Amino acid sequence: MSAVLLRVVCPVDNAQPLLSLMPRNGRGRRCKLSSTGVSAACSSAVAHPSRSSVERVYEVVLKQAALVREQRGESSLNLKKPIETDGMADWNLLNEAYERCGEVCAEYAKTFYLGTLLMTPERRRAVWAIYVWCRRTDELVDGPNASHITPKALERWDNRLTDLFQGRPYDMYDAALSDTVSKFPVDIQPFKDMIEGMRLDLRKSRYDNFDELYLYCYYVAGTVGLMSVPVMGIAPESDASTESVYNAALALGIANQLTNILRDVGEDARRGRIYLPQEELARAGLSDEDIFRGEVTDKWRSFMKGQIKRARKFFNEAEKGVGELNSASRWPVWASLLLYRQILDAIEANDYNNFTKRAYVGKAKKLVSLPVAYGRALMGSSELAKLVVR
């Protein structure tokens, strides 16, 4: 399909699935977005506080989709282009950097790592580099040295990100990501937004409503999908709009983070953090004190049923886009989706006791899920649609 035919589809149409997952209230308003949002989206999602979080995030989605759409309309990526180095020693160091990233991924995300082995070597290495950067960023506020992290430290990390995007990496892991962003149409904005999520963790421990929580989930998890789509690639035969694929990737990140929040209620409470929307807790007749007390009551069960239902809606939205990805890239995404969604089942099996019981997917269920994910990865979106109809 030529670049001329690949235009921006009406953002309101593409954003509607995610907008429908947001709670309505009397004060809410939905402003219309236009194709000019693509150029405006270069600013962070936090730049337009008068808009809903979905609308603000969608502007970022538009920009990311435009970059990939441009690449799809032109020639295919030249992933084997020579890297400008000072000699064979630099080439070997870069290979070693990617291998180190793969080792980190294998240690901390075994199932996902296994799925990446089906990808082409170039895409696989790039995904490892992105994973490692995201993990290092998360460790700044959740790792062993988190108590020593200050806003100034995050500012230095942000500056370091800018440097590596400009070809000035600080270490081997940075070098791998710097090489990745030089080969794929990966934009810096989702990376910067993830750092913004870390800043939120330093200064914020409550979220008034789901609109606030949605933006946080985008920052710390939805961004990963936007980083990854350019690397994983969209299937050449896909008829889906680039925006819809990005929407699905965003939805998977939101779903995963909502699942993390529901799984870790007790653990977060012991750290003085409550990520559940305060307005929704109040409507359910619950308060912070109820969470700190950690008693599973009928009110709590009813509240949790609603939270789980919403997370599942985001997983369902995410499913629509997985089949549109490059066939070699689908397995790790399907595996992540199927396994994470089962954590919600485990919370239900624990009678909604996420105060003292940690919901997890056992090894046996993981082993069963992996071939299911592989089977779905072999099917494109049309075959999956037929399977659902049956």
Using the CA coordinates, give the radius of gyration: 21 Å
The count of β-strands is 0
Rounded to the nearest angstrom, the distance between the terminal CA atoms is 32 Å
* Uncertain spans: 1-16, 22-43, 80-89
Strand content: under 5%
Q: Total helix count?
A: 18
Determine the mean pLDDT. 84
Structural class label: mainly alpha
Q: In which range does the helix fraction lie?
A: 55-70%
Largest sheet: none
Shape: globular
Q: Report the order of strands and helices.
A: HHHHHHHHHHHHHHHHHH
What's the assembly state of these chains?
single chain
Description of the molecule:
Helix 3 (53-73) runs parallel beside helix 10, helix 7 runs antiparallel to helix 9 and helix 11 runs parallel beside helix 16 (330-349). By secondary structure, this protein is an all-alpha fold. Mean pLDDT is 84; it is low at 1-16, 22-43 and 80-89. It has 18 helices and no strands.
